[in-house]
Amino acid sequence: MNNVKKLTFSKICIFDIQNTKKQQFNPLKEFLYYLKFSGVKGVIDFAYSSHEDSLHKNLTVKQNLILDAIPVSLIKDGENNLTEFINTLTNPFLIEIIGQLGSLNKYVHELTAGELKMASIIKAILSQREYIFLVEPETNLQFNHIQILKDCIEFEVKNKGKSIFIKPANKDIWLDISTHIISRCEKTHGYQNIQNPLSKHGEVEIEKEQTNKNFNFKLIKKVA
């Protein structure tokens, strides 16, 4: 074990938490509670996307991205810097999703359900946050768009070191790319984070390391 090179391993997690109580279920609140439960301290650096998104409906998609997604240093020059920022993207699948959306000058209230979903996901991924929480990202998307999104998510995790959590409408869609499944533990009333045996990424031996910020998982060995 000591001879195996250790690499930082970010995760694609299925957030398989179901509403078992009578009161209204809030996935975002549950997700933030899970991060705190897992040891994340202080202000949580996260982005969020859902079908009930916080996109400003009286603004264009471009204005939403300038307001909420691109780095603060680029806001001063607005639209020109947004274009330059998009041109620097290295994730080809994210670029493809932006292209599928079409014009960024559309107002949010003019978007179809599928376009609204794509705009919401684009905003979350462009925000460059450490944690990304996507609620039912497959909803209202066509099959080919879902496939591009899966490739996009894998690229962000492998190349940008992000941890992406998915609260799916259909868990089966995400089993091939997810590395972990998070669920409630009935015995402890806490959470359990298990490796996904159906992941195409193979099995991994992991070492759980607690830091002053969060719990990091380090890749010890990957079995093809």
Structural class: alpha/beta
Low-pLDDT segments, ≥5 res:
1-9, 203-224
CATH topology: Rossmann fold
Identify the strand order in the major beta sheet. 3-4-5-2-6-7
The fraction of residues assigned to DSSP E strands is 15-25%
- For the termini, the CA-CA separation is 17 Å
Could you give the order of the helices and strands?
EEHEHHHHEHEEEEE
Largest sheet: 6 strands, mixed
Helical stretch count?
Answer: 6
Could you state the CATH homologous superfamily? P-loop containing nucleotide triphosphate hydrolases
CATH level-1 class: Alpha Beta
What is the global morphology? globular
**Proportion in helices:** 25-40%
What's the count of strands? Answer: 9
Primary descriptors:
alpha/beta; 3-stranded antiparallel β-sheet; disordered C terminus; single chain; 9 strands; 224 residues; 6-stranded mixed β-sheet; Rossmann fold
Could you characterize the architecture of this molecule?
- With 224 residues, the chain is α/β, with parallel strands linked by helices.
- The protein has a single domain, classed as 3-Layer(aba) Sandwich (Rossmann fold).
- The strands form two sheets. A six-stranded mixed β-sheet has the order 3-4-5-2-6-7, with helices on both faces. It has a three-stranded antiparallel β-sheet with strand order 1-9-8, with no helix packed on it.
- Helix 2 runs parallel beside helix 5, helix 4 runs antiparallel to helix 5 and helix 4 runs antiparallel to helix 6.
- The protein is globular.
- The N terminus and C terminus are likely disordered.
